[in-house]
Design goal:
This protein has helices at about 1-25, 25-30, 35-40, 45-50, 60-80, 85-95, 105-115, 120-130, 435-445; strands at about 140-145, 150-155, 165-170, 180-185, 185-190, 205-210, 215-220, 230-235, 235-240, 255-260, 265-270, 280-285, 285-290, 295-300, 305, 315, 325-330, 335-340, 345-350, 355-360, 375-380, 385-390, 395-400, 405-410, 420-425. It is α+β, with helices and mostly antiparallel strands. Strands 12, 13, 14, 15 and 16 form a five-stranded antiparallel β-sheet that branches. Helix 3 (about 35-40) crosses helix 4 and helix 8 runs antiparallel to helix 9. The longest helix has 24 residues, at about 1-25. Residues about 1-10, about 365-370 and about 430-440 have low confidence and may be disordered.
């Protein structure tokens, strides 16, 4: 009986996760439906708070969520006679808003609206508790050498202004070549690289950048030398895959770096592969590797660090391989998708399990842009971020996996160099609002 109960609960959890994902995708449409609003309020603790707190909530901006909740509260106050219970629900729901995404003027307006419903102490309390929450939207930043031994992070909007740096990190003797980064919550992790290719001097320090305090900290040391490798965060570990090691040889290992202990916990050897660092991804508890030599997909169980499919299974591209400019693996809705950037300026995605096409988009390129270099930066929520560089003309676009919409995020020429590194960071619109500032703002209302 116990095992049956456990199995039933597991199936329920899986079903709940699927339903939650669908509600996140359709949130803006659902808010116009009276039945959904009733469900959200009636099942607040079991469902509503989980949905409103989700990082995958598909909204244009945080203001939409705030206005929706505010209007919902005003309407329900007119019909609900249990004022005490109603007020408690209001506080819980307003804690789900990401106030750190509002700028100064927006924040003043938000506080004014909240003052109509809540006490000063309540506003200060739940906004202060909420301000470190992971933002739903991200902004582009650039890691670039500002001198031979100093790496700077600058907001892309101010990339030409050398004085507008979010942070700087000093290296000795020079900034390493082939370092990699990955983002999780408010932290950017940076590690690896060689102080000059072929010099035999390696950066083995693992650095963590706090996007809110804008400070670097050293959290541990790598056991292996690596550059130009793939870096992922899985549970409480950094997963380091492939790349190049000593004597310019290809690394055939996967390492797990424990963030709590600051040490490498496990290492597994890989078969001889031709894959590049961008051609791997993590889906649930498995690491998938795409071999560009024989077009086979291999899978590693990260729990046991064992190769589940050592021989791999063939993935049919259904395209002339010479037309494929860039390949990468990416996780979309708990499925492994092979994403291809083609030379004709389109992006196509196929499921590795079945070979089914799940994505096909044409990019907004000029006639001369067939030679454009296209690379996938990341998948955040519904959006695939991709960078394009054609003879110094740099553009960043984002493509909606569900609606097929395409938005140009960056369209400028900031004189990028080969060592520049495009990264995604949480937007810091109002990270300067600490408790004392909030108290002054509320008192002035």
């Amino acid at each position: 009986m116990a095992s049956q109960h456990f199995h039933c609960m597991t199936r329920f959890e899986v079903l709940f996760k699927v339903i939650l994902q669908q509600f996140c995708y359709d949130f803006m449409e659902l808010t116009t439906m009276a039945t959904f609003v009733e469900l959200l309020f009636a099942q607040l603790n079991r469902f509503g708070l989980v949905l409103l707190s989700s990082d995958e909530l598909n909204v244009e901006n945080e203001r939409f969520i705030f206005e929706f909740l505010l209007n919902l509260m005003k309407e329900t106050r007119k019909t609900n006679k249990n004022e005490q219970n109603q007020h408690q629900k209001m506080v819980q729901m307003m804690k789900c808003v990401r106030y750190s995404l509002f700028n100064g003027d927006e924040m003043k307006e938000v506080v004014n609206q909240l003052m109509e419903i809540f006490k000063k102490e309540e506003i200060l309390s739940f906004i202060s508790e909420n301000r470190w929450r992971y933002p739903r939207s991200l902004g582009l930043a650039l890691c670039r050498n500002i001198s031979s031994n100093i790496l700077g992070i600058s907001d892309f909007d101010h990339v030409r202004d050398p004085g507008c740096l979010l942070a700087r990190l000093s290296f000795e003797p020079i900034v390493p070549v082939g370092f990699v980064t990955t983002l999780h919550d408010r932290f950017l992790y940076l590690c690896g690289g060689e102080y000059g290719i072929g010099k035999g001097r390696w950066n083995k320090t693992v650095w963590r950048y706090d996007c809110f305090s804008r400070e670097w900290s050293e959290i541990g040391t790598m056991t292996e030398e690596r550059r130009h490798f793939a870096l992922f965060l899985w549970r409480k570990s950094l997963v380091m895959v492939g790349g190049f090691g000593k004597y310019r040889t290809k690394s055939q290992t996967v390492s797990l770096f424990d963030l709590e202990s600051g040490q490498t916990s496990r290492v597994v050897n890989l078969p001889q592969l031709e894959f590049l660092s961008q051609r791997c991804c993590i889906v649930d508890d498995s690491l998938y590797l795409f071999d560009c030599g024989d077009y086979h997909l291999r899978q590693i169980d990260l729990n046991s660090m064992s190769m589940e499919s050592p021989d791999g299974r063939n993935v049919s591209l259904n395209y002339d391989c010479q037309s494929v400019q860039f390949l990468c693996l990416i996780s979309i809705k708990s499925q492994c998708v092979l994403l291809m950037a083609l030379k004709n300026g389109s992006i196509k995605g196929i499921l590795t399990e079945s070979g089914t096409s799940v994505l096909e988009l044409s990019l907004p390129l000029s006639e001369k842009s067939v030679s454009q270099q296209i690379e996938i930066i990341a998948l955040i929520g519904n959006w695939i971020y991709a960078s394009m560089d054609d003879d110094g003309d740099f553009r960043v676009i984002k493509l909606n996996v569900k609606t097929r919409d395409i938005c140009i995020v960056i369209d400028q020429r900031p004189s990028l160099t080969a060592g520049d590194h495009v990264v995604l960071l949480p937007k810091l619109a109002s990270s300067e609002y600490h408790s004392s500032r909030l108290q002054q703002l509320i008192d002035s209302c």
